[in-house]
């Protein structure tokens, strides 16, 4: 009898282009599965609310959709966005940073003083970013080395940074900043201001770190289950420390943007910036306890708060009432995650029941083993 052999092509014999296309398909399937696991209502909740708010404001006020107002919305949200992007890493890791607002004010003061005294914009930029990174590093070391809860550690840093800013300036603004620094806000390219290009660059860089690097995976692991991460040989303290450093770097960038916007150092700025950033992160869909969320969801939360504040201004709501409304939004932000968890449970329960074969009840004795 002839010996017929079936040749099985090796695994790597596929065409060169199919490997990369298969990777993209697998990545797309994983993303879709993750979205389905969270529930479509959870994923689309904030974009739907934002769309409804935009439609209402566009109908209620003729100036809302003008190019000038849209540009102002994005510029006013730039500082909040940059800070919130960095703070997202801290919250994903299961920590909290309350010092970002006072940190931005201190960076603004130091940046303005260095530029005024040296006449060098580059030196002022380096001082601002370096100070922000230093604040984040100190916060991270206190939390990881001294094992001080991040709430207490960053609350102390908030007080220290605010006190230093006031002591250096006697509570007055720091003038004498080079006028060319204002080009960051007033000039641009392709119809987009440079400050908005900076926001896009920060978002793109941090989104890549979060979604395409092993560090991003470790941040989710640490925030989801710290002890399991330790048992998996993940350097938990190093991950937490680096998250605070990232937040500090964004604080430095935001402080420079603040200085460019107002052409001065502002020791009293950023009072509610930290709480507003946390609200934007939570409203966007990131779990305040860590382990779940993303930079892209934070972007939706920032846009929602920025459009809300702009709409209240256009409608002529006075400052006191506007603070009451925004404060109500902060409280609602803390309860949004509860409703999201309920939506996720229902969607997962529905998916599990749909996967069961017809007639399966899930109860009853296990089948007896077949006799041989």
Structure in words:
By secondary structure, the protein is an all-alpha fold. It has a domain at 78-294. 72% of the residues lie in helices and 1% in strands. The chain contains 14 helices and 2 strands. It has helices spanning 16-38, 40-60, 67-92, 100-118, 121-144, 150-169, 183-186, 194-212, 214-224, 226-231, 236-262, 273-284, 295-314, 319-355, and strands at residues 188-189, 192-193. Strands 1-2 form a two-stranded antiparallel ribbon. A hairpin with a 2-residue loop joins strand 1 (188-189) and strand 2. It starts with 15 loop residues before the first helix and ends in a 17-residue tail after the last helix. Mean pLDDT is 82; it is low at 1-17 and 35-40.
Unreliable parts: 1-17, 35-40
- The backbone outline, from C-alpha atoms, is globular
Compute the number of helices.
14
Strand residue content: under 5%
Please state how the strands of the largest beta sheet are arranged side by side. Answer: 1-2
Q: Can you summarize the main beta sheet?
A: 2 strands, antiparallel
How many E strands? 2
Mean pLDDT: 82
Structural class, please? mainly alpha
| Radius of gyration from CA coordinates | 25 Å
The level of helicity is over 70%
In whole angstroms, how far apart are the ends? Answer: 35 Å
Q: What is the string of helix and strand elements?
A: HHHHHHHEEHHHHHHH
Element layout with pairings:
Elements: H1 16-38, H2 40-60, H3 67-92, H4 100-118, H5 121-144, H6 150-169, H7 183-186, E1 188-189, E2 192-193, H8 194-212, H9 214-224, H10 226-231, H11 236-262, H12 273-284, H13 295-314, H14 319-355
Antiparallel strand pairs: 1-2
